[in-house]
Amino acid sequence: MFLDGLDALDRKIVGLLIENARISYSDIGQKVGISRVAVKARIQALEQRGIIEEYTTIINPQKISGAMSCYFEIETLPKTLDRVIKTLEQNPVITQIYRVTGKNKLHVHAVASSNEELEHLIEQVMDPLPGVVSCDCNMILSRVKDIKGLRL
Question: Fewer beta carbons below 10 Å: N end or C end of the chain?
Fold first, then answer.
């Protein structure tokens, strides 16, 4: 399906890493039937090809007292889109920016440490953005389904 460019062994390795990115080369080798050294070589090749981009820790903002997670749907004039993106990229409260099709040109995620920080983001960053036709903010109340990266 999505991993057509990978052989069956690489698919198994990627699947194990998705389940647990901290799994050891030895444990992967035992599960897929190759040596620890062969696993390391395959993973390094996947990293060099850009198939595996990074290993990270994901913090759930809803589990931190006071943190607020939200997303913005922003429609801009075409001539100001690049400036809007550059401005948003510089803000540490903004965690993800997606350029999308349809009426809204940008889908932007933010995690604020407090209501005050979110209000500051809206008033000092979002409101003054150049060429914005519309900007809607939606609070995330809970995670229902959240798949990171590519599903197998």
Answer: N
